[in-house]
Design a protein that fits this description.
alpha+beta; 7-stranded mixed β-sheet; 9 helices; 3-stranded antiparallel β-sheet; binds zinc ion
């Protein structure tokens, strides 16, 4: 059986090989299962990331709060009226709502930490700890769900991906918006309302198209069984925005049935 990784070993790799230090503003996303056996599982990975960095931010998205209304704006990549089953199962957003299972156990362990703060977006909330936690989280509004990514860009933030590929690089959504790509309106259940949420990003399934192109600005380390990457957010956003401006369908997926990508493509595929 493979040796279990310890928090100390993970912290050392993040510091020595990926260049994360106690001043780093870090946007982190990873799946603990990808690392292989870890002593203490996701809780340990969370602690190791917190020990390595200064301010740590993670997505704590709650897709399970979304509902599909009967009608809404056109070209919004939704089949209105088809959500009855999903709507009946939707969760009401509250600060204690667990992150969606797709976001993973590291983020859920981080959310459960009593020192963690959470922003208030009912679908795309972020969680944070560290000296800049309040500042980065308060940059998010209903109208500007990706505010924390822009905050991190302005404060020399780094993106850490642990055992996940570019389809989990949520920062790329900001590059899409800046390049003029259409965003969507979505709806979510909150305690006293159904909230309409503007400027919501679309599909991420095509994001791996940028993976190799980011090699010059990416640091890579193997931690346990996971390939881990650190990418500085500012050049990442500049490069991705420029690429989408040059090639308007860049990063869209090729699934014929993907309403999100097919709604936004400039050169429709046959
Ligand atoms: Zn798609």
């Amino acid at each position: 059986m493979a040796k279990e990784l310890t928090a100390y070993e993970i912290t050392c790799r993040l510091s020595d090989e990926l260049g994360i230090d106690r001043h780093t503003n870090l946007l982190a996303h990873g799946l603990s299962a990808a690392l292989g056996p870890v002593q203490g599982d996701a809780e340990t990975v969370k602690s190791a990331v917190l020990d390595a960095a200064g301010t740590v931010v993670m997505p704590a998205f709650t897709y399970q709060t979304q509902i599909i209304p009967q009608t809404g704006p056109p070209d919004n990549a939704l089949d209105y009226g088809t959500g009855d089953e999903m709507n009946a199962r939707a969760d009401i957003y509250r600060p204690s709502l667990p992150v969606h299972p797709d976001i993973g156990l590291i983020a859920e362990a981080f959310r459960n930490d009593p020192k963690t703060l959470r922003s208030i977006h009912p679908v795309l909330s972020f969680i944070a700890q560290g000296p800049n936690a309040r500042a980065v989280l308060s940059s998010q509004t209903r109208e500007n769900p990706l505010g924390p990514v822009a905050w991190l860009e302005m404060h020399d933030g780094l993106l850490l991906l642990m055992g996940v590929d570019q389809r989990h690089n949520y920062a790329l959504h900001l590059a899409e918006q800046r390049a003029g790509r259409k965003t969507f309106t979505r709806w979510a259940l909150t305690i006293d309302d159904i909230e309409e949420l503007p400027n919501m990003p679309g599909c991420r399934d095509g994001f791996n198209a940028i993976w190799r192109e980011l090699t010059p600005i990416t640091r890579v380390a193997q931690i346990g069984m996971a390939r881990c990457e650190v990418i500085p957010i500012k050049p990442l956003l500049e490069y991705a925005e420029q690429r989408i401006r040059e090639e308007p369908d860049f990063l869209l997926c090729d699934q014929p049935g993907c309403l999100s990508c097919r709604t936004r493509e400039v050169s429709p595929r046959l």
